[in-house]
Amino acid sequence: MVSHLKSYGYLFVFSSFLLLLCHFSAFSQLRYQAELLKYTNQADSLVNKYPGEKIYIQFDKPDYATGDTIWLKAYLFNAPSLLLSAQSGVLHIDIANDSNKVVKQYLLPVANGITWGNIGLDKKEFLTGNYILRAYTNWMRNFGDETFFYKRFSILSLDNKLLVSSHVDVSQLTDHYKVNTILKFTDANSVAASAAPMQLQVMSGDKRLYKQKLATDNKGLLNLNFDVPLKAVSINLIAEDEKQPSKMLIPINLNRTENVDVQFLPEGGNLVASIPAHIGFKAIGEDGRGVDVKGVILDKEGRELASIQSLHKGMGSFDLNVQPDEIYTAKIMLPGGATKTYILPAVKNSGTALRIVNNPDKDSLDVMVSGTDDIAALHQNYFLVAKARGVVCYAAVFDFNKDKTTRCKVAKSLFPTGITHFALLTAEEQPLNERLVFINHGDDLNIDIAPAEPLYSIKDSIALHLSVTDNTGKPVQGNFSLAVTDDSQVKQDSLNENIASRLWLTSELKGYIEQPGYYFSSLNPDRFKAMDDLLLTQGWVSYNLKIPAASYAAEHEFKVSGRVTNFFNKQVKGTRVMLMSKSPVIIRDTLTDNDGRFTFNNFPKMDTPVFMIQALNRNGKKFNVGVTIDETILAEFTEPVYPQMMPWYVNTDTTLLNFVKKDERAQELHYLPAKGRTLHEVKITARKVIKESQNLNEDRGADQALNEKDIEKAGKKTVLQLLQEQIKGFRVGVFTLGGVSYFSYFIKDKWIIFFMDGTRLNYGVYRESLNDLTAYFKALGAEDVKGIEVMSGSKYMAAYKRIFSEYDTGPADKFQFAFVEITTRSGAGPVAKYTPGIYLYKPLALSYPKQFYKPKYALTDTTKQLDLRSTIDWEPNVVTDSTGKATVSFYAASEPSTYSVIMEGTDLNGNIGYKLIKVKVTGRKETAKSK
Predict the structure, then answer these.
(1) Per residue, what are the HEC states of 138-175?
(2) How confident is the model over 648-706, as pLDDT tens digits?
(3) Range 484-496 burial, b when 16+ CB lie within 10 A, else e
(4) What is the 3-state secondary structure (H, E, C) of 673-733?
(5) Who contacts 904 (Cβ-Cβ below 8 Å, separation ≥6)?
(6) Angle made by CA atoms 485, 486, 488, in degrees to the nearest 5
(7) d(CA 203, CA 189)
(8) Residue 876's closest CA among 83, 152, 108, 80?
(9) 608: which residues sit within 8 A by CB, 6+ positions away?
(10) Cα separation of 723 and 719, whole Å?
(11) Rounded-to-integer distance, Cα 638 and Cα 122, Å
């Protein structure tokens, strides 16, 4: 029998116990109800005290060109309620390249859970390649990086000049694979790269398997054969065109059928003897993507018990009557016709099983908990708990009846739309079985996008009338974003991530989810069954606190805070602290509190903030105290496990190619739609002179120089990071001469002699000297430095060589040298890193949005000026009124095409909506079409 506790946390209304447990004593009933109530109250109390956050970001398009701009709108939600979060006021965005190196960081101000902005993809910082954008708040770091928002995207260009079509055939021999690869090289206009000499290398990770120089034929074709060891992984072909030169990385996806992994996951977690089982399975190829398979389930005698076939992306499910001491195998037919046998999980002779049937046409879930004879005979109590978004929405106490099975119906109305996590627990709260189900109340917002006119032509003014209602038809006031893109350049796929799939599905699951939009598209009749198969095979994300005592505080605003301490590291209370900034001019002061802490806030907009914070005594003088600042440390970048992204120039499609070609054309024209004219770049260069530098050259000249502006632009860095990222040719080297190993930093092949404010830093060439120098440069912040100069050419090294030769002997005649002069703000050289009582703080500035440019054309515009926009319109702040309506307008571009219009957003009650329509623009008047 079951005693139900329905708990709704602050998502819903609390309900009382339904006491159905009849054959327990009154004392037993009260005891276990009290224990379960204590458990649910503790769980909900934790969520109330430490609510998680979820992020969704809408982008104007999925991929970008070099020099392009990312336009984005971010929504920050309270995880349990999906109301817009007021907890955090700052959003962190990191962009990392395919080597997991963070290229750029951004901070966006968040107001009432909403922010929008733009990221310029500077060609010097963002090279062609694959990237991943990560967004999070400081508060979200308490819940683990699996709760962060991630988006992969590519930056495209014709820098390589060549495109390549790749076809791979793999055959297995006794001890290796024979790989035949046919490559076809063309330019962007499909002209074959004939007789092109190619230097080819095949790599398995860092190990080179093959190297050869071949030339393409007159059709641009090249046939390459090579061997691959059986256990080799991550095979890449590097092709370098010696004419261009053009270097291309071409991943070789072997997709060996024998390496297809098929996992079998029983509902609830285990196969238990004599209890019927519902089993999910998932087939994953070598490239990390789902593989469609079919096959049969066999017992140990080889008898066929069930036929199976995947439904979507390699996933499916089947039922099986589980017998004691049985061994089950699956004979699977893989792509290409090969077969492979897999062993199902072992049968447990003792245990419990949890079965939930979620019929989309029913208003309740059929829940069945079963136990083996020995489990039922114990007459123990169990808890069945169901959480949605971390909040306990249902709980029950039960024991097994004579049938060894407990059944009940659980109303779906108890749960919000999204994933519900059922768990069967012992009375001691130890988990036994788990099951995820998806509840869909159809309460997403209804968004209607209606073009104002039935006819559109190129350069027409297009108005879209927007209307939003809830699932009862009532108008909705809300905040939305809208992107319009040209289908001839941008592929907007309705099966990709959207606000609904993110908040209701992928944010709750671990791992990579292929085509998350598939599970929400009414065009897919199997989506409910496919969703259930997905939840049988996918791990779930917990939004429970993972860091004790919430170590990462929520950032409500941009502020400067810190602490003043004395020589004994004790707080200095009541002391005056001044904050000064040159641009904009800011002078403020405050007093430290009883803990020696101070805070400055309410700053104006600043592009590159640099603050001087100084502690003063009662007489307004500097004194010997320490000032520390609460600086946010970058979260370690751990990329989620995703299938490898193919470079855009490999087997590219016409849409991407058209996008890149049009972008290239626009850059050639330096086209500005607003003025209808071209601009030509004028570069003005001036020699950088570092003030107060001890540069020995009379004209203060250097081959490379970083001044204060360069260092400020680089952001929060150590001096070592500055040298590594900003100084060309900077590297560490080790070599042997005369049996002696020498260690040092180099500019290309020249050993560096460092000077700081005129004082030489490195004298030795042994490992200890290099280690000391490295530790020093890591400890020294870029904010302590105002300039770095490199003298590596003969013109500027002469003055240094004269001084150097006077006091150095030994290897001086055996090496070539470069000289690096570092100028600090204190001017005290390596002896003093900073002045006591003063802290120079260069925080990352808040990024404020720019206005998206929209050209305007006259009614009778007859100019032939090209308009090559890929993003036709971007509206980050669409607000519907009390009638649920709004209007946006923009002008069509100069070529006939079909536009994708995507609108997403939320109301004030935690409901969300997504809509994609198509609008056709032709050279002649034609009715706009909608999907």
Answers:
(1) CHHHHHCHHHCEEEEEEEECCCCCCEEEEEEEEEECCC
(2) 999 999 999 999 999 888 777 654 443 333 344 444 445 788 888 999 888 888 999 99
(3) bbbbbbbebebbe
(4) CCCCEECCCCCCCCCCCCCCCCCCCCCCCCCEEECHHHHHHHCCCEHHHHHHHHCCCEEEE
(5) 56, 58, 480, 481, 498, 499, 912, 913, 914, 915
(6) 145
(7) 30
(8) 108
(9) 583, 712, 713, 842, 845
(10) 6
(11) 24
Return the ∠ at Cα 419 (arms to 56 and 314), rounded to 5°.
90
Going by C-alpha positions, the residue among 147, 150, 265 that lies closest to residue 532 is 265
Alpha-carbon gap, residue 871 to 891, rounded angstroms: 11
Structure tokens at 836: 């006591």
Q: What is the signed CA dihedral for 748, 749, 750, 752, rounded to 10 degrees?
A: 60
Could you give phi then psi for residue 768, rounded to 5 degrees? -60, -40
SS3 label, residue 413: helix
- DSSP 3-state of 374: helix
pTM for this one?
0.85
Q: What is the per-residue pLDDT for 744?
A: 81
Measured in whole angstroms, the distance separating CA 21 from the mean position of its chain's CA atoms is 48
Residue 414 DSSP label: G
- Distance from C-alpha of 166 to C-alpha of 530, rounded to nearest angstrom: 32
- Looking at the predicted structure, is the pLDDT value of residue 87 above 80? yes
Q: Which residues of 785-795 are buried (b: 16+ CB within 10 A; e: fewer)?
A: bbbbbbbbeee
Residue 279's CB: how many other CB atoms inside 10 A? 24
Q: Using an 8 Å Cβ cutoff, are 422 and 111 in contact? A: no
Nearest CA among 593, 599, 488 for reference residue 897: 488
Identify whether the C-beta of residue 257 lies closer than 8 Å to the C-beta of residue 251: no
Residues 6+ apart with CB under 8 A from 430: none
Q: Are 3 and 385 in contact (CB under 8 A)?
A: no
**Cα 634 to Cα 881: distance, rounded to the nearest angstrom:** 40
Angstrom distances, CA of residue 876 to CA of 59, 449, 750, 852, 904 = 10, 16, 51, 9, 10
Strands (E), 487-596: 560-565, 576-581, 586-591
Going by C-alpha positions, the residue among 544, 539, 546 that lies closest to residue 390 is: 544
Question: Which of 431, 447, 514 is CA-nearest to residue 479?
Answer: 447
Q: Which residue has the higher pLDDT, 771 or 556?
A: 556
Do 19 and 6 meet the contact criterion of CB atoms below 8 Å apart? Answer: no
Contact yes or no for 831/594 (Cβ under 8 A): no
Distance linking the first and last C-alpha atoms of the chain: 51
Residue linked to tokens 């256990």: 231
Between strands 64-65 and 149-156, the pairing is parallel
Cα gap 379→374, rounded to integer Å: 10
Beta carbons within 8 Å of 402's beta carbon, 6+ residues apart: 376
Taking only the tens place, the pLDDT of each residue in 694-708 is 998 888 889 999 998
Tokens 């290897």: give the residue: 811
Specify whether the CB–CB gap between 655 and 488 falls below 8 A. Answer: yes
Do 899 and 918 touch, CB atoms closer than 8 A?
A: yes
Residue 517: exposure state from Cβ atoms within 10 A (0-12, 13-18, ≥19): buried
Q: What is the dihedral of CA 648, 649, 654, 656, to 10 degrees?
A: 40
Tens of pLDDT, residue by residue over 268-289, are: 999 999 999 999 999 999 888 9
**CA Rg, the chain, in Å?**
33
In the three-class reduction of DSSP (H, G, I as helix; E, B as strand; rest coil), residue 796 is classed as helix
Q: Is 669 helix (H, G, I), strand (E, B) or coil?
A: helix
870 in Cβ contact with 61 (< 8 Å): yes
Query: What region, left, alpha or beta, does residue 878 occupy, with left being phi > 0 and alpha being psi -120 to 50 degrees?
Result: beta
